[in-house]
């Protein structure tokens, strides 16, 4: 057995039922041992036997279930290709790589574009596959390092656009549906055919995500929140279209046949508003990870064959000699070989005072070099660095499920079928025992049951709260290991800090100025600031800042 863990971004989930559907689909794949899908982070973690299945098979299962796999995209400049056979050979070799989703190699531009799962394969692995074929890959450039964030921004923009267009059309439909209350409203805008025309783009463009989700659910024999919205609004839309086209069929005993175009349009627009706000919330709560990622420098200066080369930090390998100059961030973890300096490690320890580094001292990636120049040997790179482990810890906490969330997911798994059953029973009772016109009343109540039972927040509220809590904690230097710890934290009554009786603010400040021999305190502070002007030491900078505040 070759146990492997895959972490993959997923697009298209909208509720806890999606989580249950995806977990069930992945769980049925041979070789899969454990599956955890998180709606708020839009990621799935799968533990599987690599001798039985592959990352590509899992990605295919996700897509066949109706969701999108969000991977990274890398552009490989490839030298040495001469014909289409070279292109085909490289593409076939890359496609066999574990975690590679798609490959496109262009002979004219000498570029290969690879979509892949970062948790299964990295840029160095992709580069090695091509180089093993005898081609040269002079440089590796990550085109979309934060692909998930970009995709989420596009999602937010699309939902915002759909909401505002839907809001305008729905407002016209809503006002046009009340001619008896608004006699001044233009008669043309109250005609059923006008209302039908205005509602159609709302139903099939603004609400397309619900219809598409419903279609996917039908193909796989499942049901989710999209089912409720799609069935309810389509029932209102189709009934109203029927009334518009053949009103005499729906007018038993001379009663008025009402249309419900406003119901479909307004509800779709309001639910899209909710989806937009949810997407914005997910985007904001994931910013904590981005800020941690931004701590990493993009490039590193390494010594190779006696020459300094500036390369992407992803290309640094264990054993490389890395040169760091004053004011630069340390790219990876390592041990100082030559030189000395003071390093600000507040991003890791919270202590503002720089730490002196000499030969043999350990340095941590993303910490800030203050004064001197030194050379260190890289000991940990990529996912093995301290910062990467911190990020992984925060991501794991954001992706973990609290006990209350597991309960919500279980409820969501049976919630939709129960609601559909109740709605069908409601329709039957009203149709058989309701007043005339029985069909109209039965349909109206059928739609009401479906549409009021769309609690998409059932599966989103808890994970979003976890993301906010862990993200804000990470920003303030507090690492929360898992969601269960966060859920039980409200019972904490006493906190003990091991900080020698002092909690630092992250940087020293001058609290008091004590003058001897009756000297003028303002003058003493001014002279001290002059002496410390231009100093890079935190105490000197604090003295200058105090003098600046005192005027």
Quick take:
This protein is of the alpha+beta class and 551 residues long. The protein has 18 helices and 17 strands.
Structural account:
By secondary structure, this protein is an alpha+beta fold. It folds into 5 domains: 1-70, Alpha-Beta Plaits (2-Layer Sandwich); 79-136, Alpha-Beta Plaits; 149-285 and 401-461, no CATH class; 299-381, Calcium-transporting ATPase, cytoplasmic transduction domain A (Distorted Sandwich), CATH 2.70.150; 508-551, no CATH class. Helix content is 48%, strand content 16%. It contains 18 helices and 17 strands. It has helices spanning 16-27, 55-64, 84-95, 123-131, 147-176, 192-206, 208-220, 225-245, 261-285, 287-294, 346-349, 386-399, 403-433, 438-452, 461-475, 483-488, 521-532, 538-550; strands at residues 3-11, 32-38, 43-49, 68-70, 72-77, 100-106, 111-116, 141-142, 299-304, 307-312, 321-324, 333-339, 341-344, 355-357, 362-363, 368-369, 374-380. A hairpin with a 4-residue loop joins β2 and β3 (43-49).
Strand content is: 15-25%
Biggest beta sheet summary: 6 strands, antiparallel
Number-wise, the strands total 17
| End-to-end Cα distance | 71 Å
Strand order of the largest sheet: 10-9-11-17-12-15
User: What is the count of structural domains?
Assistant: 5
- Spans with pLDDT under 50 lasting ≥5 residues? 140-145
As a percent range, the share of helical residues equals: 40-55%
* C-alpha-based Rg, rounded: 31 Å
Helix-strand category: alpha+beta
From the spread of the alpha carbons, the general shape counts as globular
Please state the average pLDDT score: 81
Q: How many distinct helices?
A: 18
């Amino acid at each position: 057995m070759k146990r492997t863990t895959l972490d993959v971004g997923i697009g298209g989930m909208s509720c806890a039922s999606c989580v249950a559907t995806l977990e069930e689909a992945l769980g049925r794949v041979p070789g899969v041992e454990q599956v955890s899908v998180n709606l708020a982070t839009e990621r799935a973690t799968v533990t599987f036997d690599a001798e039985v299945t592959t990352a590509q098979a899992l990605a295919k299962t996700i897509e066949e279930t109706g969701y999108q796999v969000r991977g990274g995209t890398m552009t490989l400049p490839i030298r040495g290709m001469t014909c289409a056979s070279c292109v085909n050979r490289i593409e076939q070799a890359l496609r066999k790589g574990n975690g590679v989703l798609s490959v496109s190699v262009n002979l004219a531009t000498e570029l290969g574009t690879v979509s892949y799962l970062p948790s299964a394969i990295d840029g160095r692995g992709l580069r090695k596959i091509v180089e093993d074929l005898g081609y040269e890959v002079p440089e590796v450039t990550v085109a979309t390092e934060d692909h998930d964030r970009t995709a989420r921004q596009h999602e937010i923009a699309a939902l915002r656009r759909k909401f505002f267009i839907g809001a305008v059309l729905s407002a016209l439909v809503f006002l046009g549906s009340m001619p008896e209350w608004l006699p001044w409203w233009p008669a043309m805008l109250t005609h059923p055919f006008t209302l039908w025309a205005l509602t159609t783009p709302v139903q099939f463009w603004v609400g397309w995500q619900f219809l598409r989700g419903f279609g996917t659910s039908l193909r796989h024999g499942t049901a989710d929140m999209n089912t409720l919205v799609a069935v309810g609004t389509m029932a209102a839309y189709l009934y109203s279209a029927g009334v518009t086209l053949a009103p005499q069929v729906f007018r038993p005993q001379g009663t008025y046949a009402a249309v419900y175009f406003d119901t479909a349009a307004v509800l779709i627009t309001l639910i899209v508003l909710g989806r937009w706000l949810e997407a914005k919330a997910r985007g904001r709560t994931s910013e904590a990870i981005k800020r941690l990622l931004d701590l990493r420098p993009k490039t590193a200066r390494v010594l190779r064959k006696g020459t300094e080369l500036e390369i992407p930090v992803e290309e640094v390998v264990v054993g490389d000699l890395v040169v760091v100059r004053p004011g630069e961030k340390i790219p990876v973890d390592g041990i100082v070989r030559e030189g000395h300096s003071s390093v600000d490690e507040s991003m890791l320890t919270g202590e503002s005072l720089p730490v002196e580094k000499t030969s043999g001292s350990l340095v941590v990636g993303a910490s800030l070099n203050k004064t001197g120049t030194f050379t260190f040997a890289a000991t940990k790179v990529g996912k093995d660095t301290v910062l990467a482990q911190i990020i992984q810890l925060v991501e794991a906490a954001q992706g973990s499920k609290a006990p209350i969330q597991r309960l919500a997911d279980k409820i969501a798994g049976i919630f939709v079928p129960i609601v559909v059953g109740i709605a069908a029973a409601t329709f039957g009772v009203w149709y058989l025992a309701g007043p005339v016109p029985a069909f109209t009343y039965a349909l109206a109540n059928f739609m009401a049951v479906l549409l009021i039972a769309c609690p998409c927040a059932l599966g989103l509220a808890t994970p979003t709260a976890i993301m906010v809590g862990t993200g804000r904690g990470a920003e303030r230097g507090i690492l929360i290991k898992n969601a269960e710890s966060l859920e039980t934290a409200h019972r904490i009554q006493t906190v003990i800090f091991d900080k020698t009786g002092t909690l630092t603010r992250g940087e020293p400040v001058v609290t008091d100025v004590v003058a001897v021999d009756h000297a003028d305190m303002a003058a003493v502070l001014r002279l001290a600031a002059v002496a410390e002007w231009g100093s890079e030491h935190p105490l000197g900078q604090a003295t200058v800042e105090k003098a600046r505040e005192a005027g």
